[in-house]
Amino acid sequence: MDRLITHLRHVAIAVPDFDRELEFYRNLWGLTEVASDTGVSFLAAEGSPEQYVVRLRKAADKRIDLISFGAADAADVDTLAVRLGQQGVRLISEPGPVGTPGGGYGFRFFDNEGRTVEISTDVALRPHRRIEEAESVPVRLSHVVVNSAQPEATVEFYQRHLDFALSDVLMHPENGRMMWFLRCNDWHHSFAVARCPHASLHHASFEMRGIDEYMRGSGRLMRAGVEKVWGPGRHRAGNNTFSYFLDPQGNTVEYTTELDRLDEDTWHPGLHDFTDPMVSDQWGTANPMDEFVARKSFNDPDKGLFQAPPV
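The structure corresponding to this sequence follows.
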C-alpha cells in the first residue's frame, strides 16, 4: 500500500475567548500545557508521544486553524508535496523546517473546501507516560471529524490525494449518506466527514485508558456543568464508546475508548442506518440521536477557509 500518511498528530483551533478555552482544556478536559506564546497554547495528552494534540490560538474569528498528520520520513513528505502540486492541490508552503514545538520537516496545503492541512515528519517525540488506573485524562487524540457542505467531494479528495481508506458509512433512509469514516492506518478512523450545510469542525475525539477512566472523565465534566450533547454510549461503526460535550466556544469534543483496529487486507466498508438504535448506541444508554443532537455538532461556519493561519 503506497500510503504516505502514517497517523493523526494534532488539531489546531482559533477562538475569540482564548482564556476560557485554555482553562477548559487544561483544567477540565485533562490536557497538559507544554508550551505557550502570546495568544497561543500547545496542549499535550499525557499518554501520547506527540508534542501536542491541541493547539489553541486567540483570534477574532472561530475557525479550524489546521489538521496535522504525520509522515514516515522527509522523502515521503517531499513525494507527497510534489504529488499534490502536480494534481493541482493549492500548496500553502513548500516542504521545510516546522516552527512549532518539536520542530520537524513539513508543509501545508488547502483541501478542497479550504481547510489547512499540515503534513510533517521528524518531529521530536515528547516524553510521555503510562496513564494509571482510574486516571481520567486523555491518552491520545483519537480522531477529528469535519462538517462538509460537499462531503462526497471531500471524501474523494482525501482518498485520492492522501490515500485514506474508507472504513464505514452512516446513512439515513430519507437523507442518504451522512458520515464517512476514513483511516490512514489500522485504526478504524483517524478522520471522518459529516454532511452539513457548511464547513466546520464536527468534533475532536480523545481516547481514554479504558471504560472506567472514560466514565470517570465523562462524570467529571457532567458534575462541572459542561453541556453534554450525546452519550455515554457505544457506536457500532468503530465499536468505540462516546460521550460528546461542548467546549466554551461551542466546539464538540468527545471522550472515547476501545476504537476498533482493523485487518486492512480483509476489511470491507459497511453501510449503517443510524436510525437503527443499535447503530447509534449499542448499549442503549445515550440520549436518542435526533435533529437537536445533530444540530449541536453543526457548529458555526468556519471563518478560516482558504486563509492560512498565521502560526
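The longest helix spans residues 74-86.
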